[in-house]
Amino acid sequence: MKSLIVANWKCNPTTLKEAKGLFDSVKKALLRQRLRTGEGIKNIKNVEVVLCPPFIYLSSFKFQVSSFKLGAQNCFWEEKGAYTGEISPLMIKNLGIEYVIVGHSERRKYFRETDEEINKKIKKALSVGLKIILCVGETTEEKEQGKKQQVLIAQIEKALDRIPRDEMKNISVAYEPVWAIGTGNNCSTDETMKSIISIRQIITRLYNRETADKVRIIYGGSVNGENSGSYLKESLANGLLVGGASLKPEEFIKIVRSAT
Ligand code: 13P
């Protein structure tokens, strides 16, 4: 299974000029990496790299992409209609974008996104042919109250409610403990491994072992060029979801390199 390395730029940067600069730097650095390792321009062996800039920049990038894929950071749950301000999965798909992140903890927290809404988004996005990166993870309070397992079960069961088994190949799950996001207080590889095993068990129970084994389960939360390799080697993570470090091209490439 190819590792999945995802850059979530979140609400950054604030100008198109800066966004293009960041995009170009990452593209060039990836290209250098490919040339260095003697690999083709199109693929770094065993790694799939996905950049998720803000919606507003996506269409500026899509024609230039050759060496990695693009994703959106969110989507709505309808294809079109009178929903002021929303971006539909069909619009994203029609732009030639392959991935969408759904259920990020920042959307759950600041926009009160519920598991039911996340489920609706996933269903619609799958129906138009997008691939999903579903984020799950416990908050500080939930961790302190010993509720991590309970939270993971509820979030995954509700998000995947009535999602057919044959769609699971289009879903990756990102374990992002909320307390580890943007804090530098990253989750230990041991704890991450336990969560990844739990998540795979939950999916096995909902579907079956064969289906669960094909789902990529990735880690996110204060990942950087120094710690990325240990997550990939020691925690059974099939990839990484990177926030802050994805805004620094050289740091991000270090992370990509650690997955090769
Ligand atoms: P940081 O890498 O900045 O902690 O963010 C993680 C994240 O939320 C990625 O989606």
Main pleated sheet: 8 strands, parallel, barrel
The total count of helices amounts to 11
Percent of residues in helices comes to 40-55%
Stated plainly, the CATH topology is called TIM Barrel
Radius of gyration: 17 Å
Number of separate strands = 8
Structural class: alpha/beta
Distance between the termini: 12 Å
The side-by-side strand order for the widest beta sheet comes to: 1-2-3-4-5-6-7-8
- Name the CATH superfamily assignment: Aldolase class I
Beta-strand share of residues = 15-25%
CATH architecture descriptor name? Alpha-Beta Barrel
**Would you tell me the overall average pLDDT?**
94
Number of domains: 1
The CATH top-level class label:
Alpha Beta
Q: How do the SSEs run, as a string of H and E?
A: EHEHEHEHHEHHEHHEHEH
What binds here, in terms of ligands, is: 1,3-dihydroxyacetonephosphate
In short:
42% of the residues lie in helices and 15% in strands. It has 260 residues and is of the alpha/beta class. It has a single domain, classed as TIM Barrel, CATH 3.20.20.
Report on this model:
- This protein has one domain: Aldolase class I (TIM Barrel).
- It has eleven helices and eight strands.
- Strands 1-2-3-4-5-6-7-8 form an eight-stranded parallel barrel, surrounded by six helices.
- The two termini are 12 Å apart.
- The site of 1,3-dihydroxyacetonephosphate (13P) has 14 residues, from strand 8.
